[in-house]
Amino acid sequence: MKQRAQILARDPVCKVCGRAASAQVDHIKPLAQGGDDSYDNLQGICIPCHATKTASERQPIERASMGSELIRRNTYEVRHNDPRNTTGPGPEH
Ligand SMILES: [Zn+2]
């Protein structure tokens, strides 16, 4: 049995919304962020939730890969306004 089918058999209901039937297999921690293909890192997910999750994961990566000064400035402001990130270099004149 393929791993994908095993995950869907283990998680017949979407692990994100808990309502819709799982139709796809999702990486809980994206491969781009160091996740792997182990069973522990995979979950059943419905198509709408997968689309939402993928879009939210892709956003910061695309933003980072774009070299535009405007985009970089926006990213900096977002980081600067994030109360969790207090260790980054700030514009403290
Ligand atoms: Zn769902």
Strand content: 5-15%
Order of helices and strands: HEEHH
The dominant shape is: elongated
Helical stretch tally: 3
The protein's oligomeric status is single chain
Distance between the termini: 61 Å
| Hetero groups | zinc ion
Helix share of residues? 40-55%
How many individual β-strands?
Answer: 2
Report the structural category: mainly alpha
Radius of gyration: 18 Å
Biggest pleated-sheet summary: 2 strands, antiparallel
Unreliable runs: none
Q: What's the arrangement of strands in the largest beta sheet?
A: 1-2
Query: What's the rounded overall pLDDT mean?
Result: 80
Short précis:
This protein is mainly alpha-helical. The protein has three helices and two strands, in the order αββαα.
Verbal overview:
The radius of gyration is 18 Å and the shape is elongated. The protein has a domain at 3-58. It is built from 3 helices and 2 strands; from the N terminus they run H-E-E-H-H. Helix content is 43%, strand content 9%. Bound molecules: zinc ion. Zinc ion (ZN) binds at residues 14, 16-17, 20, 45-46, 49.
Notable characteristics:
93 residues; mainly alpha; two-stranded antiparallel ribbon; binds zinc ion
SSE layout:
Blueprint lengths: L2 H8 L13 E4 L14 E4 L1 H19 L3 H13 L12
Antiparallel strand pairs: 1-2
The structure holds zinc ion (ZN).
The site of zinc ion has 7 residues, from loops.
